[in-house]
Amino acid sequence: MNRNYLGEFEELVLLTVAHMHGEAYGAAITQDIKERTGRSVVLSAVHVALYRLEEKGLVSSAVGGATAERGGRRKRLFTITTYGMNILSEIRQVREDLWQLISKPIQPAVL
Amino acid sequence: MSKDSKGHLPPPWIDKFLQWRLPEEQFEEVQGDLHELYGQWVEEMGEGKARGRYLWTALTFLRPLPKAKKSLYPTYSDYSQANFFDMIRNYFKIAYRNLIRHKSFSFLNILGLTLGLTACLLIALFVQDERSFDKFVPAGDRIYRVYYQVDNNEGTSVIATTPPVFPTILQQNFAEVESTLRVLNHSGKELFEVGDREAYEERGIFADSTFFDFFPLSFTFGSSLKALDGPTSIVLSQPMAQKYFGNENPVGKQILMDKQPFQVAGVFASNPKFHLQVNYILPMSATGLSAEQLQSWSTYSHNNYIKLKEGTNVATLETQFRQYTQPYLKDEVSTFLPVFQPLHDIHLYSASFKYDMAVRGNITYVNALTIIALFILLIACFNFVNLATAKSLQRAKEVGVRKTVGATRKQLMVQYISETVLLAFISMILSACFSYLFLPSLNRFAEKQISFDLFTNPLMPPVLLLLALTVGILAGFYPALVLSGYQPVRVLKGNVVGETNLGKTPWLRHSLVVVQFSLSVLLIISAIVVITQVNYLHNKNLGFTKEQILFFPMRGDNMFNNYETFKNELLKSSTVSSVSIGYGFPGDMFGDGLMTAPVEGVEKKLKATQLMIDHDYIPTLGLQLVAGRNFSKEMSTDKDAAYIINETAAKELGYAVASQAIGQTLLWNTWRKPDLVKRGKVIGVVKDFHFKSLYDKMEPAVLQIYPEAYWKVAVKLKTAHMATALPHVQAVWNKFSPDYPIEYRFLDESFEQMYKAEDKLKSLLWIFTCITVFVACLGLFGLAAYAAERRKKEIGIRKVLGASVESLVLLLSKEFVKLVAVALLLATPLAWYAMDNWLQDFAYRIDLDWWIFALAGVLALLIALLTVSFQSIKAALMNPVKSLRSE
């Protein structure tokens, strides 16, 4: 896919998947985002983002083992692909370039 | 961190919802995630809140999820999408091949459905038309007609007309009434003249100037404003204006009505959906009724309409009005109750009203027709179900193959239902064509102007398509269910499914046949009853001779003043056997009057029809006297102090034997001068004769000589040769009233007219019974053919072993005869109930004899046997070699 545009939320989910190192699945990501950002995220939104990322080839998934707290249901574990990693660093590069261009640190406006 | 969620199970119904919502491969992970989160939520905020949160989260999954790339399990729905269009094309190909291959079956199906749909369409058009009367009137839901419910010694009757004072009272005393309208029927025919064009016209009315505010008919010439203001203005209908003035604008021109000049104020276009179909409208002031007469409480002659203000409670107003009028509405023998009838009910719900000039339909017949239409459609659908299920065996292999290559049951059902829908569409197109063809005949028959605007009415095509779709799905659902249920392993092994069914009775198919035949028998019985009753009405001995009697009203002052000479002139020809002049001839108009009989000191009141006759009335009509004598010219008292009564009147006066009534005194307030009492003795009792229609019970009648009311002339002719008699009558007429053309009819014609509605019902029932029976037979024919085919080998073997043709025919027909017998048992009580109800409308009616039901039964059996035996004889006659050699 040529269009490497990512939504803000998609980027957040992708970053979470990346830092969880193969332990990322719907409930865990929801929980993680909530703990880190204080943002209350709806599960289905996370799922939508994950599937969309997979569609774009940024993450890949495999069905993992069942645990007791899930009542024996298997989870789908997501890992970031190399392409996903590249996109992330590309985004980061763009942001850092932009930060460089801001010479002065930002000052709060004085009334 | 991970908490155990045991004991904290979320509501299972939410999971059910998720399972329904999500694809299988996504459901498991989503549910797992949800349960895990739920466990945490319970810890964090307690079970109650967690549940709410759980439900909310589950609901957010209503949004469409992108498809997961890799599914947990490969399902064949992944592959079945592949050649979707090829599959649909294949459906059509198979459907087409099936139609072609089973030509006779397809033909039976399409024929049955087409007939059913055509009947349905035509009836629907008719019913729709009947129900749309007066719907064009703005604010029609606020317009009511005030009618009378009258109770007296003759029972309860309903009268469409009420006193002319009602609107005044309502307008003045009830704030809820916005405006009122009086309409007076101009009964009889009037001579109209413009230049040398002259003709008698009927159906005219006098109306208040509010008429066109109530009923805004569209004007082709002139304007409805102030059209009825002048006392000599007249408003004509379009056809009538055309007749006298051609295409020119007649507004302001003069037209003579009964030699009086009137100015045309406007021409209105007739609206066929209006309950008052009139030719001309005159202002109320043209009646010549005095203001006093228009405030009368005792004459009920006017059709009174009221328009209520918005939001008025009609029931309350009606009660108040009844209370208000109660003190005035008394009469020695009758009680009167005013009732408010909604405008939209006038056309369909006034069938039994007396003195009603509205164009009336009959809700009973409209409902009956609707039911019949549904019957026919149902029977046609059943045919389809039956034939398709019977035929399903032959398609079992197809089902097997389709299932093996991966068709789901749903797909198969869709396929078979769409085949039926296709068939229904073909039938719909055909029946639309047929309806189009038959509509003119229906219009002529029903005297309507229904149009079938298939292309101009935007509602029509979708409604028809929807109907076809519904019929298709209804008819196709069960066969599709059966077909798609076959198991491929069994079917493909050559183990014919039917064999497992052989011993079983096909309950559904049999009950459908029973229902079909019950409906058919129901209609057959109804048709027989109606036909017998109508024939009875036409042929019943009415107690007088109505044949060869020429009948016409007198016209012109000269004729009225010299009626005796006129009568004698008429009698001069050898073609005339007798002449009677009077008012109150059978089948014509009548006046009522109250008789007082001072019996043993007590005054007894009797409401009776007054027949104003002359000395020759009784012999002219051939009435029989049971006691006493006819009026005689030798008796000078006969003219002013004598009455003849009918048997019913004698009975109501309390004389069990007719001769007891002779010599009794009767008092009557004369019509012309109500203060003048005519006192006379009963000189004769005439045998009851049906001067009114057979709907009505025999009413008491008083015959007397009262020249002031003489109006009509009845001429009894000696021969049926009009050629010699008519010129004579015409010549005498011209001698007396050269200014007026003569307009005569024959007395028996008016009796034929009386039962027009029943005659129509008779023909309608006859047609629909035939259609129903025919469609039901189509189904039976198909089933019999199928049964014969299925048992071909059995018959072959039986024949080889020596079975006779008769026994084989019996074997094959037995089953169907049983079904028809059951149908007969079911239909008889229903038919009895329905027909008994219908007959209650007639005072004189046939008995529901057992032979009617027997005849219907025999007919149904015969028809069924004929249908079935065609197939069974064919099967029984077949050479067994043919059916057995292929084994």
TrEMBL record, chain A:
Signal peptide: none annotated. Residues 15-88 form the Transcription regulator PadR N-terminal domain. Pfam families: PadR. This is PadR family transcriptional regulator.
TrEMBL record, chain B:
Its main location: membrane. It is found in: Cell membrane. Residues 371-487, 766-880 form the ABC3 transporter permease C-terminal domain. Residues 106-323 form the MacB-like periplasmic core domain. Keywords: Cell membrane, Membrane, Transmembrane, Transmembrane helix. It is a multi-pass membrane protein. The chain crosses the membrane at residues 107-127, 365-385, 420-439, 459-483, 512-531, 764-788, 816-835, 850-870. Coiled coil: none annotated. InterPro entries: ABC3_permease_C, MacB_PCD, Macrolide_Exporter_MacB, Permease_put_prefix. This is ABC transporter permease. The lineage of its organism: Bacteria, Pseudomonadati, Bacteroidota, Cytophagia, Cytophagales.
